[in-house]
């Protein structure tokens, strides 16, 4: 299928949506809003997976879609909300890149990924190429978010959206074997991360979630 | 007819089966040493354990010496061991060059082992017992190796074993730990440098077997790089300036018999590696300048070492410095041989190489002797500091006279061994003008002056050593109560002393024995000079040690006879005229030490003449107020510039770099992620750029 | 026949030089005294001194070891052996093959070391002081001598004194500036080796300045006689060496018969006399320098020697 | 069930069983038993002919490392049996620890065995998850900091690796049918015909992803802290085994890209990362005050050397790299045994608090001394052979790079010697609590000496079959 066909357009639309939400995550300051944006991204990803399942006729991807929706669209956001409530952070507004700056950085990263991917994937189908480009952008934006946020939860969300990018890439490549297994495994990793931050934050009872407060505790000091 | 030639003429020595036997004998001796090392921890528990181990070491050393002579008289032979590195067998071989140095190792090892055996008191700690055979075995392996890996295996094993021995008193003194630390650091550095040297030499083929290396001799910058790396690796091990700083620290820290081996044998093993590279592996078609760095560094080491020997106040450190001087002289000889060979003067090349080899042998013997004597002094008078010794000739006559033989040889006095080899070396230096190149001639003239200066400085140092330790009056009660060692110890001292005299009287025989090694190095033989003489060149100057000795004896005899005819026999004894010093107080029954020359006082003239400029030496005299009876005190000290550089700027640069690196480590998690992110973006940008092109 | 002549000449040479040593010293002292306006002692005075000392029983310190007793004989013996090797009136003596310059230097070093050790034997301050200075000066004199020997070896192709003398006698080397420089270097070395002014004052016993005398301060009787005799012999040896190498005129060639020896003998005596006169003039003309100026003196000698060698390189390179 | 899977699932079954054992003594013994059986299984596997079996394969490249990891796993379990009570675990943590240990061992073996790159990725992720919890197990702030950093950085790294895997499939997609799409063997087969640019992209992500796990500068930040916290045995296997798996993953990726003539040459990237690692570690070593962190940094240095070797390529350098990996596993785990035991005995892992070991604990002290000397590349251990091979090859190929490498190695060597003498020599410091009874002290020192013996054997008399296997592997990775 090529440009101008329905399948292509829908897949493109969904991928673009995921990317757009990455931008939202990037400049969204309020923690609650960040979590919601992430939930939306997860849902969109699930839709994308479902559509790919339909388009490629790969029933396995439906499973991926369901998992993605359940975990990323519902459970993890709820868990994160719970943490936020437990540590009453929902008011907390934290420094992120300003809109303009985050936009420019993001656009630059998207440009870079397109510059890299499109010539790199001439062999592959147009849809796959688009998808990989979008996925790479999402990955890079996720990393950018991780390094611009001090708040542990925002960092986790950055990692999660980064992983969304991976799933996006995985489902985009038609006929990828093990895609379900891989996405599941990645999901497990993410859940583990959330559980980790959960256990870790609660146990430590840091008055702040600022990861900077960890630095003092490095072994053998400074 | 040269002496060994009729021996060589005996057909049975040419028999290949005999050559195999020689190599097998040497390998068995080495293996035996390894077995001893393995068994040492268990044996150390029993009272008879230590004597078994050390006796075994002595026996193995004798075997090695015997095998070496066999190797010199017989021919070369090679063998592949059934084990080795993961990529091939370990190759061993014996040829004239390695045999010559094996002879050195055997002689030094025998004396040292007997001494250790004799100075045993009760059970020996495993950490002192186990490394010793390993040390000997490591040196033997290095000399027997026929490929780069085996050579370095032995080289580093030798370093590691001796490091344990250098650190044997680690609990007592920080100084020993520092010595051991610096020593092992230099050892590792040397090993890595030699690895690179083998790599550059092997080139693309990557085969480090000697046979393969000889096939493709390097040229141009590769040859220069190989030489530089070998000088860094083997040179640092031998104690060539400026990488000699570890030597005066490490050699004294070890037990005396180990110090003797380190100075007598280990430095020679390093010299062997140097010679093996420069004369054998790098091929014979090397340019003249290849010898220049050896001559320059050798001259520098000779002067620095000899001068420091005049300033040190610890007898073992003093001897270690004199080792640096002698290594420098040997390296001058090797460098000249290289230059002569490059200038196509084979006879002179053989002369210089002969001087180097002969001096290596002589130095090994007399330095072993001197270190063993120092050990005996330490054992008898419980101190290594000159200012706590004195007058020992009365209490330890055997040690004193044996040491005197070594001292005279080290001071290069005729007719002892040191003079013979240094005479050859001077002849080689005096002939160096025959190399056409003017710059080299000037350099060689300077080297001649420096070599002579070093020799004379060594004489001064040796007079200072022997005179202050064995002559004069005891400076401490312990020195006054010193006692001679047991029979074995005396034997261990007399053996090398006898060899020193013997090699001094028959240098020609030893030179003839070394002839195959010289052929291997320079494709020529040392100039013939008849049976009892050594000669500079055909029809050139000659040195007839036996006749000179006879002449000297006759002259002394004549003088004695003449004096006896006119003078009354016997002497009268009286108190010393002590230059008006008041009589010593009662708490000093052995006289007032402060009315005797001290170590630093004796070194004063040379410290002022040369030390201030070369070693940043300083001194200050604190005079007592007029009328006080307190002695004036002379404080003095000096720095070895190389050591200052090693412990000054180098650590500063390192710490500066480390400080920068720490900044990287202090990053927060986010910044670490930033590093990863940066790496990804950089990589992607690079790819985009690559694809754009 | 030649063998007989060579042995004869050798024996004659030894007797001559041993006899000449004290006389030369006497003459030297007499000349110096004359130049300074004193009458001076009889030239044979040193001989009488030696005989007198020989008759006396030496006194040794209680803690003197055998070194004190053996060293004088060794030093004197070494001096005799060295002197036997330096050609005087004739070449081709029996021991000519042994007469290597470096061997001679080695024998002298042997004597020097023995003297230094004797000085340190009883552990008095002066002995150590003298030994330290003596060895230090020697350390600087040695390279100067060897560098001078370098020039000779380049010109004569060997360090064998007999051969060098022969080469300079026959080989029309002509006057070379480098030879002159070598001569200066060797003169400086000779002055230092023999403890003459300006390096040392043979006539003083002033603690702070003396070098040679400090070592033998303890010696007496026959030992002192031997020390003095060795010193005289060394002086004679050096003068003989200089004359043999640098003014080889009149020397009888190898294998020549007695008739030529007469000429050589006369020439040698004349040369020695001239050198003694020069030395006396030199010593009475200048003052002794401070001990720690000596290195500069010897260093200059060394540099002159090196300069001579370098000039030779250039000239050999050109021809 | 084929042997390949048997090894993995036996370990995981053991993990399940161990999770149910609360008593320390029984748990440690069961752990040793499971490890011993796994070791026997690994030997049996190594004796079988090479084969590809579904998602797994055995070839010359991974068989030696499977043996090594099974061996180190066994000795480590023995060490932990002797010293675990020093960690002061309650019974929950005892269960968790042993379960995690076997899960890690199974995942590690799977990661080595995997032919399918996806499976390899999953295995490495499982190994990471299993160890993270162990790094944090002591619940000190420092432990949490180390675990959190380990987790986040390696999480990102693994994510990058997954992306690389996906792109790699994308590259091979036109040429392969679905099921074999991620098989390394199949990819090697078609690599030459793949789109080079796609391969480049995949390699970039695989290198950075698995390079993070291998602790290559600048992706190394997590390594020293993760190796310094948590129980000693975990440090030993983290440093000794997990790094091998990551490095092998990098190698598989490199070999695929290297098989395509039009793709970028992977060598220079590896050389750059390797040199950076060696140089940075060699200076950072001088600032360490914590013994276990010190040896964590030394792991970075050695991984740098290995990366340099593989970057150099060619039979000699590759062989050197493989030998170095094996030797590093054996000796570095031995070093961690020694340091860990010393830290337990002295009650602190600060270098300043440990001194004079050879006087108080001769077996431990001398063992540690020689292990550190071995890490520093002294004979007769295997690392000496590998460094010799590497430096000779490097000096022949690129002398100036070799000089830079040697500069770093000399600096690191000096640091190692300094610490060696600080720990083992000098006036002994007083022991804290934690003296073990006789046989357990012996059992704690035995693995150390066994490792030294093995390292010597491998260095000087490596069994011919193993040597041939490694030489073949050096040829495989090109």
Automatic annotation (TrEMBL), chain A:
It is found in: Cell membrane. Coiled coil: none annotated. The keyword Metal-binding does not apply. It is a multi-pass membrane protein. Signal peptide: none annotated. It comes from the Bacteria. Keywords: Cell membrane, Membrane, Transmembrane, Transmembrane helix. InterPro entries: HyfE-like (IPR038730). One of its GO terms (cellular component) is plasma membrane. The chain crosses the membrane at residues 6-27, 34-54, 60-84, 96-120, 132-149, 156-176, 182-200. PANTHER family: HYDROGENASE-4 COMPONENT E. This is Hydrogenase-4 component E. It comes from Neoroseomonas oryzicola.
UniProtKB/TrEMBL annotation, chain C:
The keyword Transmembrane applies. The chain crosses the membrane at residues 12-31, 70-90, 102-123, 135-155, 175-192, 224-247, 259-282, 294-314. GO terms for cellular component: plasma membrane. InterPro entries: ComplexI_Subunit1, NADH_UbQ_OxRdtase_su1/FPO. The keyword Kinase does not apply. This is Formate hydrogenlyase. It is found in: Membrane. Keywords: Membrane, Transmembrane, Transmembrane helix. It is a multi-pass membrane protein. PANTHER family: FORMATE HYDROGENLYASE SUBUNIT 4, FORMATE HYDROGENLYASE SUBUNIT 4-RELATED. It comes from Neoroseomonas oryzicola.
From TrEMBL, chain D:
InterPro entries: ComplexI-like_HydComp, ND/Mrp_TM. GO terms for molecular function: oxidoreductase activity. Residues 114-410 form the NADH:quinone oxidoreductase/Mrp antiporter transmembrane domain. It comes from the Bacteria. Pfam families: Proton_antipo_M (PF00361). NCBIfam families: PRK06458.1-3 (NF005043). The chain crosses the membrane at residues 29-51, 63-84, 118-138, 150-172, 201-219, 231-251, 263-285, 305-326, 363-386, 398-420, 448-471. Keywords: Cell membrane, Membrane, Oxidoreductase, Transmembrane, Transmembrane helix. GO terms for cellular component: plasma membrane. It is a multi-pass membrane protein. It is found in: Cell membrane; Membrane. This is Hydrogenase 4 subunit F. The keyword Lyase does not apply. Its main location: membrane.
